Automatic annotation (TrEMBL):
The keyword Protease applies. InterPro entries: NLP_P60_dom, Papain-like_cys_pep_sf, Peptidase_C40, SH3-like_bac-type. It comes from Anaerotignum faecicola. Residues 252-377 form the NlpC/P60 domain. The keyword S-adenosyl-L-methionine does not apply. This is Cell wall hydrolase. Residues 27-89, 174-239 form the SH3b domain.
Length: 377
């Protein structure tokens, strides 16, 4: 065989290897964790907004830059704030020989196969010391100690499926729903962990769809389409025809959507008289612009906003309520924010932290200057 022919065959072989590697490592994807999430031209809240993305549409993730994910967006490169974006699939590579792929996330589970060093895997979730990976059209688990990849740590956490069995098809056909029994409200969390982000607080009596019922956590969906996990101790799971939520509970879901939208603009600078959520807002301008997105036009100043909606006591606050403050030392309302639930509110301030931020309502300056609250929904 001539030298030229040998070289051609080597080149073809090398090309095939490269192509197979690209195919195996093409799974870094993610999606927005809410609606109308900004995609910016740079990793900064001051960068131009290229567009908005919504949960359910996946985008290729190129890298993680500080608190931003770098993604492919409409043929260009964009950046999404990490708090509002989840990595759903990431490339991984096995780092040892004879590594077990197990049916469940425990060393006591059946071994489905043994990996060779360097084998590629697609990671779809993480649970404590385990990665969930795609396998034969389903999922299986491999120890984190034997998988490497530069985006693996950002893959969404998943509940332990050894204790969280899927709802059966027979049961689902009847409707499987849950009723919140916690008197002070039940925290809906992003993941099945007490340290996970609180998405909202569901009032007692709220009725939700159950996706997966486990011993400690229940995966649920609210009427507003918000997904998350709640403690099984404070949710009664039932089967049958799902009742309708009351008006008050529906309003709570709307309030949670308002909060989620408003939090996207954390970091937007304070600008007196501003109403542009991307370039700058003052306190009432922030509240005005957020509610405007939901088709509701409020009064423009913090003082005049006290005539909108109905008054609600501090003890009965729920997500989306407007909270008012007297920061001038007189009897006038001079500041307003949106209550998030869990004792915090989101607002635009020209004080410490300058700009849109989240603050504890029940301590320090906020507690001392709080005056009243109004419910819009």
């Amino acid at each position: 065989m001539g030298l030229n022919k040998v070289m051609k065959q080597l080149c073809v072989t090398a090309a095939l290897v490269v192509l197979s590697t690209v195919t195996a490592f093409a799974a870094n994807v993610g999606q927005a964790s809410g609606t109308n999430v900004n995609v910016r031209a740079g990793a900064s809240t001051g960068a131009n907004v290229l567009g908005k993305i919504n949960k359910g549409t996946e985008y290729t993730v190129l890298d993680k830059v500080d608190n931003w994910f770098k993604i492919s967006y409409n043929g260009a490169t964009g950046y999404v704030f990490a708090d509002y974006f989840s990595v759903t699939k990431a490339d991984g590579s096995i780092t040892g020989s004879g590594v077990n792929l197990r049916e469940k996330a425990t060393t006591a589970s059946n071994s489905l196969k043994k990996f060779s060093s360097g084998e590629a895997v697609t990671v779809t979730g993480q649970n404590d010391d385990w990665y969930r990976v795609s396998y034969n059209g389903g999922s299986a688990y491999v120890s984190k100690d034997y998988v490497s990849g530069n985006l693996l740590q950002y893959v969404s956490k998943v509940s332990n499926e050894t204790t969280a069995a899927p709802v059966s098809a027979t049961t689902k056909a009847e409707d499987t729903y849950g009723v919140v029994t916690a008197g002070s409200g039940l925290k809906l969390r992003k993941e099945a962990s007490t340290s996970a982000e609180v998405l909202t607080v569901l009032p007692s009596g709220t009725i939700v769809d159950v996706e997966r019922a486990g011993q400690d956590w229940v995966s649920i969906v609210t009427d507003a389409g918000q997904k998350g996990y709640v403690s099984a101790d404070y949710l009664t799971v039932k089967t049958g025809e799902k009742p309708d939520n009351t008006t008050s509970n529906t309003a709570s879901a709307k309030g949670a959507a308002v909060v989620a939208y408003g939090k996207q603009f954390i970091g937007t600078p304070y600008v007196w008289g501003g109403t542009n959520l991307n370039t700058g807002v003052d306190c009432s301008g922030f509240v005005y612009a957020v509610y405007k997105n939901f088709g509701i036009t409020l009064s423009r100043s913090s003082a005049s906003m006290t005539s909108n909606g109905v008054e609600v006591s501090k003890a009965n606050l729920q997500a989306g309520d407007l909270v008012f403050f007297n920061t001038g030392g007189n009897s006038s309302i001079s500041h307003v924010g949106i209550y998030c639930g869990d004792g915090t509110y989101v607002h635009s301030t020209d004080g410490k932290g300058n700009g849109v931020t989240v603050t504890n309502l029940n301590s320090g300056y906020s507690a001392n200057t709080y005056v009243t609250a109004r419910r819009i929904f």
